[in-house]
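Project standup — Tuesday

K.O.: blocked on the structure for the chain from last sprint. Re-posting the sequence here as requested.
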Amino acid sequence: MAVVEKRYVNIPAVVVSETFDDKYKSIWPKKLTAALAAAIKGSSKLTTEESDDKKAQAFYAAGDLTFSKTDKEVAAQISVILADWPSKKMFRTEISKAAAPVSNPAKIDKRLEVLMKDLMESIQGKVVKTLESKVK
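H.V.: unblocked you, prediction finished:
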């Protein structure tokens, strides 16, 4: 049985491109970048360790996070661009969205914490599934 070499995935820091409160720009990119890396490391076909073979098939997964708020809810969306590495030739974008009602402004951070946990789990599964399907 041949051993399949794991494919490297380059994961730059997730970017917050839109938010209603700048504090989320310092909190969530680190958490989401770590969550994506953890999902990749948990795969039997993918790794965050760069290969010595510079010609080996590799991928790129760049996340963009947005937050929005209305009088009744908070919402978040993460888009992860998936591409070949190092060319960055894009082949797919995975998107996960979530929203939660918020009637009390003092509870926004707690609602967002729960919302983001679900969002992270969703995007982790989508990204890993898509990248694993591309491993030759």
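K.O.: great, moving the ticket to review. The first strand starts at residue 7 and ends at 10. The chain has a mean pLDDT of 92.
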